[in-house]
Amino acid sequence: MSSVSAALTQTSKEFASALSAQTSTGNNMDKEDFLLLLVTQFQYQDPLNPMEDQEFVAQMAQFSSLEQLMNLNTSMEGLTDATENQQMVNATSYIGKQVSVTGNKIGKVTDADGHTTVSTFRYAFGDNVKEGILTVMDGNGNAVYTETLAGKAANATFEFNWTGLNDKGQVAPDGTYTVSLAAYNSAGESVLSDQVVDATVTSVITENDTVYIGLDGGQLMELANVRQVSVPKNNVTDSTKKTTDQTKTTTATNSSGQTLTVG
Questions:
Q1: Which pLDDT does position 263 carry in this prediction?
Q2: Is the pLDDT of residue 130 over 80?
Q3: Given this model, what pLDDT does residue 90 score?
Q4: Cα atoms found within 13 Å of the Cα of residue 64, Cβ hemisphere only
Q5: What's the CA gap between 10 and 4, in Å, rounded?
Q6: Cβ-based burial of 196 (10 A; exposed 0-12, middle 13-18, buried ≥19)
């Protein structure tokens, strides 16, 4: 074997060894590896047939482009992380607010006083429905409660408030449930439905690069599926009551004979 062949064989072995080490650690080759490859190529090049200047410049240009692409990729990853963090920060403003979220996950929660709260499920059909069935299923896909649907008009919104009882009239355990709709028109064809869940936001989390909101029923829904955000009705009532009380207090303490109008 000639010295040139031996040098090329040695280069191949060293490069294969470096590549194997990168693979075993789960890392991809970076610019440092490519520069090492270039230096190794210079080290074992044929002294009687060295690399031409043009070829050297071309390879250096390729490595420079590679470095710029890697830096751009790193910058894009940082931008993606920053965007996700900003989404999570923005989503925290939803905590305590009532939201309408696309989906069919409802939650059942019972507090220490024995008061049970179940998420409100609303739906609308794109065609007139002759008959159908609504099913509440537990986390294992078992039917807990079923309800027969009579005729439903298209484009009208219907509300389902589950009592938390199963088909036997027994109290179902607290947890997250799925509402399934099967509806048919007069021709026996399936009718699609638009489904949303109304609940109050209690938390915000990030999981697998996706931002979720935690609802008071215990279920997690994607932030991207939020369709409406509003102040809970009880908060509006409390605010109105507070304003009314303030008005009464102002009028009562003004004894100079003057009439004050508040609001």
A1: 37
A2: yes
A3: 81
A4: 6
A5: 10
A6: buried
Give alpha helix (H) positions in the chain. Answer: 3-24, 31-43, 53-91, 233-253
Same domain, 88 and 180: no
pTM of the model: 0.59
Stretch 199-210: mean pLDDT = 88
Same domain, residue pair 39 and 117 = no
Rounded to 10°, the helix 53-91/31-43 angle is: 170
The Cα–Cα gap between 53 and 39 comes to 15
In this structure, the number of other CB atoms found within 10 A of the CB of residue 201 comes to 24
The answer to whether residue 65 sits within a structural domain is yes
60 lies in which domain range?
3-92
Angle value at C-alpha 193, between 225 and 155, nearest 5 degrees: 105
Are 121 and 205 in a shared domain? yes
Mean pLDDT of the chain, nearest integer: 76
Per-residue pLDDT at 20? 62
